[in-house]
């Protein structure tokens, strides 16, 4: 169950990272509220996952999910560059997440 908590926490991390863009400096009420809610849920689920998982592994996986998801959505939603080197680097992060899962 800890891995499920961690995965969902990573998804909410993506939500708040992308949400920050939509808050326009915390001047938009609805995006700001949703972003803050995503932050709280993400950290809460990370805390639950940490009851069973090593902190180094859990934190690296949590931030990795957030990084990969945010980078992918940045490309898709905001037209950020999707060069080969950038995609290779994102792939390396995914490989690291999988590796940490396999050895934990």
Automatic annotation (TrEMBL):
Species annotation: Bosea caraganae
NCBIfam families assigned: PRK11431.1
Protein name listed in UniProt: Guanidinium exporter
Keyword Transmembrane: yes
Bilayer topology: Multi-pass membrane protein
Alphabetized Pfam families for the sequence: Multi_Drug_Res
An annotated Gene Ontology molecular function: transmembrane transporter activity
GO cellular component term, pick one: plasma membrane
Keywords from the named record: Cell membrane, Membrane, Transmembrane, Transmembrane helix, Transport
Keyword Transport listed: yes
GO terms for biological process, alphabetical: xenobiotic detoxification by transmembrane export across the plasma membrane
Domain of life from the UniProt record: Bacteria
Localization annotation: Cell membrane
The family this protein is said to belong to: Belongs to the drug/metabolite transporter (DMT) superfamily. Small multidrug resistance (SMR) (TC 2.A.7.1) family. Gdx/SugE subfamily.
TM stretches of this protein: 33-50, 57-78, 84-103
């Amino acid at each position: 169950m800890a891995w499920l908590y961690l995965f969902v926490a990573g998804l909410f991390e993506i939500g708040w990272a992308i949400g920050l863009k939509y808050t326009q400096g915390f001047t938009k009420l609805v995006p700001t509220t949703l972003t803050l809610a995503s932050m709280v849920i993400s950290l809460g689920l990370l805390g639950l996952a940490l009851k069973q998982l090593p902190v180094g592994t859990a934190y690296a996986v949590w931030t990795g999910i957030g990084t990969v998801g945010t980078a992918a959505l940045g490309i898709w939603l905001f037209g950020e560059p999707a060069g080969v080197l950038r995609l290779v680097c994102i792939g390396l992060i995914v490989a690291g997440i999988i590796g940490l899962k396999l050895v934990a």
